[in-house]
Design goal:
The complex is a heterotrimer of chains A (128), B (176) and C (337).
Chain A (H helix, E strand, L loop, with lengths): L1 H5 L3 H26 L3 E6 L2 E7 L4 E5 L6 E6 L2 E6 L6 H4 L6 E5 L4 E5 L12 E3 L1
Antiparallel strand pairs in A: 1-2, 1-7, 3-4, 4-5, 6-7
Chain B lengths: L2 H23 L12 H12 L1 H19 L5 H23 L6 H25 L2 H45 L1
Helix pairs in contact in B: 1-2, 1-3, 2-3, 2-4, 2-5, 2-6, 3-4, 4-5, 5-6
Chain C lengths: L1 H18 L6 E9 L2 E9 L2 H22 L7 H7 L6 E2 L2 H16 L9 H4 L12 H7 L8 E4 L4 E4 L12 H15 L4 E6 L2 E5 L8 E6 L10 E7 L3 E6 L4 E4 L2 E4 L13 E8 L2 H14 L1 H11 L2 E6 L4 E3 L7 E3 L4
Classes of the chains: A alpha+beta (128), B mainly alpha (176), C alpha+beta (337).
């Protein structure tokens, strides 16, 4: 075995080093890219109920005191597609890619990009 | 095809099949982590007996293994076949193009690399169709591939040397 | 070698001990859905229990206040006022009376640029389905928009809307006002420093645990990517901040942007600003004046801010930033602007 390792050619070793370094670099790059993919957190009655990736399209129906609320995640944006609450403010928010949609009657909160890694460093809050 | 070739392919395929089956029995800590032990046989076949033999061994191994494991023509079979063929073709071309630059370890690395590239592309085009998850797992798979590629390459190299030594001894014995 | 290990062990123990040295002030943060939005309260306290109790109490205060002035709830005092528009005066609680008085005060000061009776015209627009009302439709509703038709009787604690079909909507001041109430409630529970953020309407008091002012980012009205979300940051200690922008609720037709900040006199969106941020002592002032200054535009807006003694940062329609002198030293514009 030692002999085999000793007998590897320069090209073998270079290839190995090359593959190892690009894959390790790739791991870091993809992890970095991953941290820019925020999650969608859906809270019901003040407690987190679902955590979904923002970049996986799907429809989700959640139950509340006023009935089902249909939430749509599409192409990195979230909206309340079909609300069943009196004021329907949540649907009027339209599509969001960051921030919060609240449906108070149904005690439903949808938070996009609210986790620590998505927040601006050094800020206590954001206005606007 | 000569009788000896057929016998050789049959024996090598049996070895490859055994390794493939053994590997599928191993508990996998991560779902897509596989050492690719059968590639050792492919590599040995390629270096000692040429491209045609290696390709035959790979095809027989992939088809029979999937029949035994009950995955014939399923997604796992497509991935396995695609990876196997890509790997043997890439290794064959490497030997042809850079005959003395790469040793068994280098060729094994090339094989592992193209095996993974083919599987990831197939998985992307046929099954997942979302770029992000594929890009995220790709570097990890390639890293594991590089490590197992080296190990397989070393084992192949030892095997090849032993086989050549035995052949030489045989020739010497008959020569005496 | 042994000494080395011993040293490591000691170091580890020291770290353990120092990490649980108690009664150190730190900040605690909690969020809740209230006022049809998301409220986050941060307080500086010496224990989590004290912080939790104070924050929960402040949430209750906000919720109770919200029930009084909820535009969409039939049981709110505000709905009672709207139902009885042109009919009779409605008796309301002190908080409701107070916020309406403040709203009218800001309307007067801004010459009607802020007007809480804009409701009937706002209702014509649908910023989600991109519905732009016709001029005739707007003209029909405009007579209903006039804060002067709000009649407040302080002594009897009643409010009357003079014309039938008038709508009073406190959405442009309620969040800032609620932040004031929450800060008051936190102080009553013995909290000396914190930050109440009701969506983008924020009120600070005291200093952070590191003895520095609170830092609030101001949103970039024309954000292009993840890195330019913030256009400026500002230090606050004891003041409130609010922003109004044309990027919150809007739609674009033929390159023209229609947003929710309507000029009360015309019923059309004001188009001389992209965003206005106001810093004031009171949250209610910051909230309502950010809308008023937006409607007035950079020039008149800055003049009004100086006259009343507010600080403001105005981004005009070309993207240039105008500020009052009072922001010098506490406002940092991000480097790429």
């Amino acid at each position: 075995m030692k002999e085999t390792i000793k007998n590897t050619t320069v090209a073998d070793r270079l290839l190995f080093l090359f593959l190892i370094s690009i894959s390790i670099a790739g791991i870091f790059i993809s992890r970095d890219a991953l941290s820019h993919n925020p999650d969608v957190v859906i809270e019901m009655d003040g407690k987190p109920a679902y955590t979904l990736p923002l970049y996986a399209d799907r429809l989700l129906s959640v139950d509340g005191p006023y009935g089902d609320t249909l939430i749509e995640i599409k192409e990195g944006k979230v909206r309340v597609k079909e609300p069943h609450c009196p004021n329907q403010l949540c649907a009027k928010e339209g599509w969001i890619s960051k921030g919060v949609i609240v449906c108070l009657p149904n005690k439903l909160v949808i938070i996009v990009g609210g986790s620590k890694k998505d927040q601006q460093p050094g800020l206590d809050a954001i206005t606007g | 095809m000569q009788l000896q070739d057929k016998r050789r392919i049959a024996i090598l395929s049996a070895y490859a099949l055994a390794l493939h089956g053994f590997e599928s029995l191993l508990p996998t800590p991560i779902p897509w982590f596989k050492p690719g032990l059968a590639n050792i046989i492919t590599l040995v076949a390629l270096i000692l007996y040429g491209f045609r033999t290696a390709l035959m061994v790979t095809l027989i191994r992939v088809v029979l293994a999937s029949i035994f494991l009950g995955t014939f023509l399923g997604p796992a079979f497509i991935l396995s076949a695609g990876g196997g063929i890509a790997s043997v073709v890439a290794m064959g071309l490497t030997i042809k193009a850079f005959k003395n630059i790469f040793g068994a370890v280098g060729i094994s690395l090339i094989g592992a690399l193209f095996h993974n590239i083919a599987q990831l592309s197939l998985a992307y085009f046929l099954f997942i169709q979302r770029l992000e998850p594929v890009l995220i797992i790709s570097p990890l798979i390639l890293l594991i591939g590089a490590l197992t590629g080296v190990v397989n390459g070393i084992i192949s190299d030892i095997l090849i040397k032993n086989l050549l030594k035995k052949d030489r001894e045989k020739i010497q014995n008959t020569g005496v | 070698m042994k000494n080395y290990k011993l040293f490591l062990l000691l170091l580890f123990l020291c770290m353990l001990l120092s990490s649980c040295s108690s009664h150190k002030l730190s900040s605690y943060k909690k969020s809740k859905a209230l006022l049809d939005t998301f409220v986050t309260i941060t307080v500086v306290a010496d224990s989590k229990d004290a912080a939790d109790a104070a924050i929960d109490n402040a949430f209750d205060v906000i919720e109770k206040f919200g029930n009084l002035i909820n535009f969409y709830s039939d049981s709110s005092e505000l709905s009672a006022i709207n139902r009885n528009a042109g009919i009779r005066e409605v008796k309301v609680s002190p908080e409701t009376l107070d916020i309406i008085e403040k709203a009218v005060y800001i309307s007067e000061k801004s010459g009607g640029a802020f007007d809480p009776t804009i409701g009937p015209v706002i209702k014509l627009w649908d910023f989600l389905d991109k519905i732009k009302p016709t001029d005739a439709e707007i003209r029909k509703k405009l007579p209903l928009v006039n804060y002067k038709n709000i009649v407040i009787d302080r002594d009897k604690s009643t409010v009357l809307l003079k014309k039938k079909d008038m709508l009073l909507d406190l959405g442009g001041i309620a969040k800032g006002y609620a932040a004031d109430l929450a800060v008051q409630a936190l102080k009553q529970k013995g909290i000396n420093a914190g930050l109440v953020a009701i969506a983008g309407d924020i009120k600070s008091f005291g200093l952070r645990p590191d003895k520095k002012p609170w830092v609030v980012g101001i949103k970039n009205p024309r954000q292009k990517n993840n890195d330019d979300e913030i256009i400026a940051r500002i230090n606050l200690s004891g003041t409130a901040i609010s922003s109004s922008g044309d990027y919150e609720r809007y739609f674009i037709i033929n390159g023209q942007r229609f947003h929710h900040l309507l000029t009360p006199k015309t019923g059309h969106p004001a188009n001389t600003c992209q965003s206005v941020t106001v810093i004031a002592e009171q949250g209610a002032m910051a909230d309502a004046f950010s809308t008023a200054l937006f409607i007035l535009g950079p020039e008149k807006g800055l003049r009004l801010a100086k006259e009343i003694g507010l600080d403001a940062m105005i981004i005009d329609s070309k993207g240039s930033i105008h500020t009052t002198p009072g922001l010098e030293g506490i406002l940092t514009i991000e480097r790429n602007h």
